[in-house]
Amino acid sequence: MNSDDDVLDELFSVIEDRKENVPDDSYTASLFTHEKGENAVLEKLGEESTELVLAAKDGDDDELAHEAADIVYHMLVLLAMHDMTVADLREELAERR
Ligand SMILES: N=c1c2ncn([C@@H]3O[C@H](COP(=O)(O)OP(=O)(O)OP(=O)(O)O)[C@@H](O)[C@H]3O)c2ncn1[C@@H]1O[C@H](COP(=O)(O)O)[C@@H](O)[C@H]1O
């Protein structure tokens, strides 16, 4: 175990907090407040998926990790937009064991 083990839960807590508290300079908060915020998230997920594929094809593992993190972040924002949580994701994965 190390301090990075909780990073998904910590990130999701920050994302959830941005739904209630809206700092001016927060990209995350802007996604929740903008009328087309969900569309922006969906577009990002599409773009980043393509970038992920290209990074894998190029054998660029640093870029692969970067794009994977972008996808996970935007996926968590999308779950929060639907009032879902990381627990829902864990539950779905656990059911597949
Ligand atoms: N994990 C992220 C995160 N990942 C991506 N992004 C933002 O998502 C936006 C779009 O991502 P892109 O990949 O398209 O960024 P890009 O630089 O245009 O393109 P690339 O070259 O990276 O592909 C950028 O503004 C990124 O900064 C993120 N913004 C925030 N977080 C986390 O969310 C927390 C809250 O952040 P605020 O949004 O500042 O409140 C932060 O502490 C971070 O932990």
TrEMBL record:
Swiss-Prot/TrEMBL keywords: Amino-acid biosynthesis, ATP-binding, Cytoplasm, Histidine biosynthesis, Hydrolase, Nucleotide-binding
Look up the record and name the pathway of this protein. Amino-acid biosynthesis; L-histidine biosynthesis; L-histidine from 5-phospho-alpha-D-ribose 1-diphosphate: step 2/9
Instruction: Name it.
Output: Phosphoribosyl-ATP pyrophosphatase
Compartment list: Cytoplasm
What is the native source organism of this protein?
Answer: Halovenus rubra
Which gene is the coding source of this polypeptide chain? hisE
Quote the HAMAP family the UniProt record gives: HisE
Matching entries from InterPro entries are given as: HisE, PRib-ATP_PPHydrolase-like
Q: Name one Pfam family in it.
A: PRA-PH
Taxonomically, what lineage is the organism? Archaea, Methanobacteriati, Methanobacteriota, Stenosarchaea group, Halobacteria
Which family does the UniProt entry place this protein in? Belongs to the PRA-PH family.
Q: Which GO terms describe its cellular component?
A: cytoplasm
Q: Does the keyword Transcription apply?
A: no
Q: Which GO terms describe its molecular function?
A: ATP binding; phosphoribosyl-ATP diphosphatase activity
Task: Give EC number(s), comma-separated.
Answer: 3.6.1.31
The catalysed reaction is: 1-(5-phospho-beta-D-ribosyl)-ATP + H2O = 1-(5-phospho-beta-D-ribosyl)-5'-AMP + diphosphate + H(+)
